[in-house]
Amino acid sequence: MRAPRIQKMAQILVQYSTKIKLGETVLFRGTSPLAQPLIAALAEETLKVGAHPLGYIHPSHEAVTMLTHGSIEQIEHVNPMLELMYNTADVIIRIEAEGDTGALAGFAPDKLKAWQRSRGALINIQMRREADKSLRRTTTLYPTLAYASDAGMSLEAYENFVYGAGMVALEDPVAYWRDLATRQDRLVEYLNGKQHLHVRGTNIDLQLGIGGRTFKSADGTANFPDGEIFTGPVEGSVNGWVKFTFPLVYQGNRVLGAELTFRDGIVTDARATENAEFLLAMLDTDAGSRRLGEFAIGTNTFIDRFTGQILFDEKIGGTVHMAIGQGYPETGAVNKSAVHWDMICDTRRDSEILVDGETFFKDGKFLID
Question: What is the pTM of this model?
Answer without folding.
Answer: 0.89
